[in-house]
Amino acid sequence: MYVDLHLKYISAKNAKGLLQKALNSGYSIVAISINYGVNCNKLLNEKWKVVNCFSCNRNNIIKKSEWESSVNYFIREAEYEDTMDKYLSKINCNIEENYILINRANTLSIKNICDDFMLHKKNEVTDAELKQLYSYLHAACENGDSIGIGDMSASKCSSIGGIPLNSVNNGSMVSGTRMEGHPFLLSKNTSTYILRRLNIKYEDAIKMDYHKFLRENAFDLIAIEVSSPEEACSAAHKLDCDIIFFNLRKCFFSLKRSDVQNALEKGIFFEISSLNSISEDMQYYYFSLNVNNLLSIVPLNRLIVSSGSIKESEVIEPLHFLRLFFNFNSLSYKDLIGCITTVPLACIQRASVRKSLNTAVFYK
C-alpha cells in the first residue's frame, strides 16, 4: 500500500488527471493539496468518484493481432496494463463529472488505519451513477478506436439508450456485474482514499488566527512550509500541524538535529517533495545538498517522501519514484520504503488525533 500525500491542486480538471494517474500508478492513498491564500473552498467542495473498471475482453482494448504478437507473458501483461491505463485516461478526460476510472481491484486492508479519519472518505458511487457510466463506456467503445475514443466528446453521448448522462437516474445495478453485451465490468472502489491537504507558508501562519482557521476548515492534513532552520524550529513550537515541509530552493545546509527535535517530540512529521520537478543543473545541485542534509538529520521513521506533482508527467510509479533518492546518503529500497508506506499512514493517524481533538477511534 503506497501513499502520496502531496499532489498539487491547480484546477479541477488538472486535479482529476493527477488523481487518475496516481491511483493507476499504484498509490492507494493520495492527498490533493492547495495553498493558503487562494479559494480553499474550491478543494473542499470537490468530490471525486473512484470506480474500478475492467475489460471483459482484451480484444476490445488491443487488436487481436497485436495481442498475439507478444510471445512473453509478462510483456503481454505489461503492454495490456499500459494500454488500458491510456484508454481509461482518455475516457476520463471526456467525462464531465468527477469520475475516476482505475484498472485495479479492491485489495487494500484498512487494518491499523484510523476509522474516524479514513472510512468516511469512501467516495461512494450509487448504482444509478454506475448505470450512467456503463452507457458512456458503451458509446466510447462504439465510437472510439482500439486504444482511444477518437473524436468522441461528452456532447455526442448526452443521451444514450434513454439515459441522460448529465443527470442522476433512478434504477438499480449490482456492483460488480455487467450489462449484457457490454465490454466493461464496473465495481465500486473501496480501497483508495483521496484526502484534502492545506499548505501554509510559515510567514502566513504566524500572521493569521491559525487555530481558529483550522477549526473552521475541514482539511484532513495541515502542512507548514518553512524556508529556514529557524522557521522549522519555531513552527513546531507555535503551530499544531501534521507536516513540516521544506522549500528546498532555500538553504538548509545549517540544519541541525536540535532544530527538528521539538517537532519530533510533538509527533510532527517532515516531508521532502517535488524532487522530480527540478530541471536546471545549478538548482539541482543545491537541491541535492539540502536533501542529503535532511536525510542525515531527520529520522527516516518520521520522514515522508512525496511527489509534489503538478503535471501528470511528474507522477511515476512508487518504486521508480524511490530511485530518485538513491543518489543521496547511500540509501536503498529497504531504507526508504517506509517513507511512502508506514510513515505517511502514521502521519494520517496523527492528523486524525489533531482533527478529532483526541477522540479518534482506530480500526481493530
TrEMBL record:
<dbReference type="GO" id="GO:0005655">
    <property type="term" value="C:nucleolar ribonuclease P complex"/>
</dbReference>
<keyword id="KW-0819">tRNA processing</keyword>
<comment type="similarity">
    <text>Belongs to the eukaryotic/archaeal RNase P protein component 3 family.</text>
</comment>
<dbReference type="GO" id="GO:0003723">
    <property type="term" value="F:RNA binding"/>
</dbReference>
<dbReference type="InterPro" id="IPR016195">
    <property type="entry name" value="Pol/histidinol_Pase-like"/>
</dbReference>
<dbReference type="Pfam" id="PF01876">
    <property type="entry name" value="RNase_P_p30"/>
</dbReference>
<dbReference type="GO" id="GO:0004526">
    <property type="term" value="F:ribonuclease P activity"/>
</dbReference>
<dbReference type="GO" id="GO:0008033">
    <property type="term" value="P:tRNA processing"/>
</dbReference>
<protein>
    <submittedName>
        <fullName>Ribonuclease P/MRP protein subunit RPP1, putative</fullName>
        <ecNumber>3.1.26.5</ecNumber>
    </submittedName>
</protein>
<keyword id="KW-0378">Hydrolase</keyword>
<dbReference type="InterPro" id="IPR002738">
    <property type="entry name" value="RNase_P_p30"/>
</dbReference>
